[in-house]
Design brief:
Elements: E1 3-4, H1 6-18, E2 28-34, E3 63-66, E4 81-82, E5 89-92, E6 97-98, E7 120-124, E8 132-137, E9 154-155, E10 161-164
Antiparallel strand pairs: 1-8, 2-3, 2-7, 4-5, 5-10, 6-9, 7-8
Length: about 160
């Protein structure tokens, strides 16, 4: 289910109720793509290096997007604003987020085959490995996007919305 990851939820609860420092905020977040619901731990991320893996996507890699320095700086991410429902708060990307140019169809089934729809995006705090921070659904919901060789997947400004209710 899109939203905060298990890792981030635990950090917030520790900070709020246990007065535990949350550590230094990341200088960058890394946008990922997923062929199924990432759940709370970042599952179903596309795989860029193993042709036998489910979700094989030649040349796939997470995309680095710098975080802003403070609430007054809205260079890479928008100011917080109302979401839907109106009790929610959301933040969106300010610039295009472009993935590497695919050298083959992305999100192939294990062992190869035709591309399948990519349904979710996610956020990590590292370019590989790292901590999964949360996710959202790619619109149109339940349809997602197909990525073929030579078609660079990207999100236009304000397309990546991270919402907290």
């Amino acid at each position: 289910m899109p939203g905060f990851s298990d890792y981030l939820e635990a950090k917030i609860l520790d900070w709020l109720f246990k007065r535990t420092a949350s550590g230094t905020p990341p200088n960058n977040v890394y946008v990922s793509l997923h062929n199924g619901d990432p759940e709370g731990a970042g599952a179903n991320e596309l795989q860029g290096s193993n042709p036998a893996a489910d979700g094989y996507s030649p040349a796939y890699a997470r995309v680095q997007v710098p975080t802003d320095l403070d609430n007054a700086t809205n260079t890479n991410w928008s100011a917080k604003g109302p979401g839907s429902p109106s009790t929610a708060q959301k933040i969106t990307n300010q610039a295009i987020v472009a993935f590497p140019l695919p050298s083959g169809a992305w999100n192939q089934p294990a062992g190869g085959g035709a591309a399948r729809a990519i349904l979710y995006f996610g956020f990590f705090d590292a370019g590989s490995g790292g901590n999964f921070l949360g996710s959202g659904k790619i619109s149109p919901a339940d349809i997602g996007v197909l990525v073929q060789a030579g078609q660079r997947p990207s999100f236009d400004a304000n397309q990546l919305a991270f919402q907290v209710e």
